[in-house]
């Protein structure tokens, strides 16, 4: 997505763009096609609330900047309560078609295995940077590549779910339409069922790591069994929390835990199990997940998996305009820079594209305001984070400079977040005007 955003921005500005895409000639564990902007983990861009949520604010900023990702997401949006979820296959097809239709864009299906010595480049290789390119980055930077493991959630065929047990409801009935208020499918568990599920999860067969590999998970995308290992109640206070839901079949019974599934395509034939990323072996997945009430006869369109996710120590390697300090004709963008999430990755591609446009046109841009979601992210990865402990980061209000005079703590949170977003929108529009 980051590469697609960068290419879109540059091409719309009139530059000639060549996109180098190694797929489908060179495959990855997680990708299934050769399309641009393929979604491999979730189909959600998370909250779309631009007044109370940092990622929703990032959506707003990207839309204001003419983002192709947001255009595609809005075109292929699925009901998901207050979240922005998309029909993943037509989403990536839309991005691919839009870019290929531009006369000044060429897509070359080849693997880049070295850092070029000249030209103007943006490397947006994402979490699955190839081994050859990874080795080239190591050779140039003199540092070891950092990696953590990103797990994929399973997808279930809707017609295999027992709707006499499950019911449709978004948490707290969130959403402006009836369809959004019933965007999630819920499977309730009693305490005994939950305890048995945790036992099975803990005792399941896990996919082994290759020799010399060490698991360094991102806390926002932990495998479900790793969460369970942190405490038997962890899941019940995480992806299986029962709050804000009422069992339509048994409204007087309060579930001890609830498993939620979110629609994964426009037809409503596929549902992914929310927060159930896993590194269990396939056989264990089917056994354990069929213990969930309503999924006893579940048929899986895709089982979960695990892959290595590569990112750079960007605070030491990149300058404030996302250029490699040792080779400033090369920019990096997206998840490889240490941002986490579809939206954050695409946003850094959009920004890298705009910075490249300015450089090639001889224009000097002011720094992106750190008060914006876009600026908070780029500031974090290019110097705001502690290099020794640098880890991938989602956008969050903790990255924003405080607003003076506002009350701290949970009680003041609503007013504080609104102040953050109001300030960000004004500052982002000002920066776009200057750009």
UniProtKB/TrEMBL annotation:
Location(s) in or outside the cell: Cytoplasm
Keywords: Cytoplasm, FAD, Flavoprotein, Methyltransferase, NAD, NADP, Transferase, tRNA processing
EC number: 2.1.1.74
Catalysed conversion reaction: uridine(54) in tRNA + (6R)-5,10-methylene-5,6,7,8-tetrahydrofolate + NADPH + H(+) = 5-methyluridine(54) in tRNA + (6S)-5,6,7,8-tetrahydrofolate + NADP(+); uridine(54) in tRNA + (6R)-5,10-methylene-5,6,7,8-tetrahydrofolate + NADH + H(+) = 5-methyluridine(54) in tRNA + (6S)-5,6,7,8-tetrahydrofolate + NAD(+)
Domain of life assignment: Bacteria
Domain MnmG N-terminal: 2-363
Cofactor(s) listed: FAD
Transport keyword on record: no
Main location: cytoplasm
Annotated SUPFAM superfamilies: FAD/NAD(P)-binding domain
PANTHER family for the chain: GLUCOSE INHIBITED DIVISION PROTEIN A, METHYLENETETRAHYDROFOLATE--TRNA-(URACIL-5-)-METHYLTRANSFERASE TRMFO
HAMAP family in the cross-refs: TrmFO (MF_01037)
Record family assignment: Belongs to the MnmG family. TrmFO subfamily.
Entry function: Catalyzes the folate-dependent formation of 5-methyl-uridine at position 54 (M-5-U54) in all tRNAs.
Protein name: Methylenetetrahydrofolate--tRNA-(uracil-5-)-methyltransferase TrmFO
Species of provenance: Sinisalibacter aestuarii
Gene of this entry: gid
């Amino acid at each position: 997505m980051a590469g697609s955003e960068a290419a879109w921005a540059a091409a719309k500005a009139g530059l000639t763009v060549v996109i180098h895409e190694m797929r489908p000639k060179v495959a990855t564990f997680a990708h299934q096609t050769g399309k641009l902007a393929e979604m491999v983990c979730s189909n959600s861009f998370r909250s779309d609330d631009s007044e109370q949520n940092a990622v929703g604010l990032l959506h707003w900023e990207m839309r204001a900047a003419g983002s192709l990702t947001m255009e595609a997401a809005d075109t292929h949006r699925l009901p998901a309560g207050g979240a922005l979820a998309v029909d993943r296959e037509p989403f990536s097809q839309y991005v691919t078609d839009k870019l290929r239709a531009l006369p000044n864009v060429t897509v070359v299906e080849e693997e880049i295995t070295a850092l070029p010595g000249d030209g103007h480049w943006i490397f947006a290789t994402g979490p699955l940077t190839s081994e050859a390119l990874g080795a080239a980055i190591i050779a140039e930077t003199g540092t070891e590549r950092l990696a953590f493991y990103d797990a994929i959630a399973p997808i279930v065929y809707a017609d295999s779910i027992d709707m006499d047990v499950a019911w449709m409801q978004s948490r707290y009935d969130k959403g402006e339409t009836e369809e959004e208020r019933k965007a999630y499918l819920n499977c309730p568990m009693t305490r005994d069922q939950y305890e048995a599920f945790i036992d099975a999860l803990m005792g399941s067969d896990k996919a082994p790591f290759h020799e010399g590999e060490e698991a360094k998970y991102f806390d926002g995308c932990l495998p479900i069994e790793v969460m369970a290992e942190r405490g038997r109640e962890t899941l019940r206070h995480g992806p299986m929390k029962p709050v804000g839901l009422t069992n339509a079949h048994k409204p007087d019974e309060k579930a001890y835990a609830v498993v939620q599934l979110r629609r994964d395509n426009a037809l409503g034939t596929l549902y992914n199990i929310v927060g159930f990323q896993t590194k269990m072996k396939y056989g264990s997945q089917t056994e354990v997940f069929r213990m969930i009430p309503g999924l006893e006869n579940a048929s899986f369109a895709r089982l979960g998996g695990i892959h290595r996710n590569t990112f750079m120590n960007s605070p030491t390697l990149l300058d404030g305009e996302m250029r490699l300090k040792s080779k400033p004709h090369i920019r990096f963008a997206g998840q490889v820079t240490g941002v986490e999430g579809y939206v954050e990755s695409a946003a850094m591609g959009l920004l890298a594209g705009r910075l490249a446009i300015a450089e090639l046109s001889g224009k000097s841009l002011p720094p992106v305001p750190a008060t914006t979601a876009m600026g908070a992210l780029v500031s974090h990865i290019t110097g705001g984070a502690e290099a020794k402990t640098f880890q991938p980061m989602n956008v969050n209000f903790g990255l924003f400079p405080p607003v003076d005079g506002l009350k701290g703590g949970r009680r003041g949170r609503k007013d504080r977040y609104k102040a953050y977003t109001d300030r960000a929108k004004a500052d982002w529009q000002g920066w776009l005007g200057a750009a």
